[in-house]
Amino acid sequence: MKKYLFITCLLLAMLSARLAKSLYESGVENKRLHSNQEALMGEVKLYETEAGKSAASVLRLQLNYDELERNYQGVCKEAKDLGLKVKRLQAVAQTGTNTEIKVQTILRDSIIYVPKNNLVSVDTIKWFTWKDPPWVKVNGIIDSGKVDLDIQSIDTLLQIVHRVPKRFLFFRWGTKAIRQEIVSKNPHTKLVYSEYIELKK
Question: Which of 103, 166, 192, 196 is the most buried if burial means most Cβ atoms within 10 Å?
Fold first, then answer.
C-alpha cells in the first residue's frame, strides 16, 4: 500500500511540476503578446534632440521565426539575398528617412572648347556648386537647356536599444519594455518611420 501511495505522490509531484512549467511559459507568452500589442498599437515617436537632430523612438516587437516569415516576407527575402538564414537572425531594424535640401547658389559662366567639323569652336556653359560640409555636396552644369547634377548626401543613423523600467512613485525595477532610439546625424534628414523586431528563440 505504501508503495502505491509513494508512486501516486511521485506522479502527482511530476504532474504539478509540469503544470507549473506550463503556467510559467503561458505567462511569458502572454507578456510577449501584450508587449507586441502595445508596440503595434503605439506610434513611432518622432522628435528633435536638444541639438536639433531628427530622432525617433519605437517599442520592440518580439516575434518568433514563424511570425517573422508570415508577416515580414520582404525582410526574409532581403536576409536570403544576403546569404543569411532566417533562423539565425537575432534582430531586425528598419528606419525610413526623408532628405530635403533647399539650394540657393550663384550660376557661373565657363568657357568650353567644342570640336566641330575639324574646327574648334568656343561655347559657354553655366555651372554651380553648393556644399554643407560634411553632409551634402551639389555640383551642377546647365548646358543648352539641360541640367546635369551630381548630388552627394552622407548620413549616419545612431541606433540605441535600451530597457524601460517599471515605475511606482519614485521606485524603478524590472523591465516594462524594450525601446529603440534612432538619431540622424545629417541635419537635412528627417526620420519618418522606424521598426525594431527582436526574434524570440
Answer: 196
